[in-house]
Amino acid sequence: MKNKDCTNKKISLEFSDLSKFFKVIGEDNRLRILCLLKNGERCVCDIYENLELSQNLVSSHLRVLKDLKLIDLRQEKQKNYYFINKKIFKKYNALLTKFFQSYEQ
Known about the structure:
Arc Repressor Mutant, subunit A
């Protein structure tokens, strides 16, 4: 007997989105970057100095976070300022809530 909740195409797409989300935030340094950004925008120099990581490593992690649209950037002269994309975080919060609530029924 098939479980329609697990085979529904819409739900399968949501699972795929959650899987990508978990892969991206499942890395410690990316979580640390997100933690820094929750208090407001930061330039790359602030991030790598606070986390004691190389600039190249931080830039690489920022690119991954930006590709999933978890963060966005504002350019000012020669600096990029990164910030949390709250709309996307709300989307993932809703998906996670829906997923976990389905186990409470």
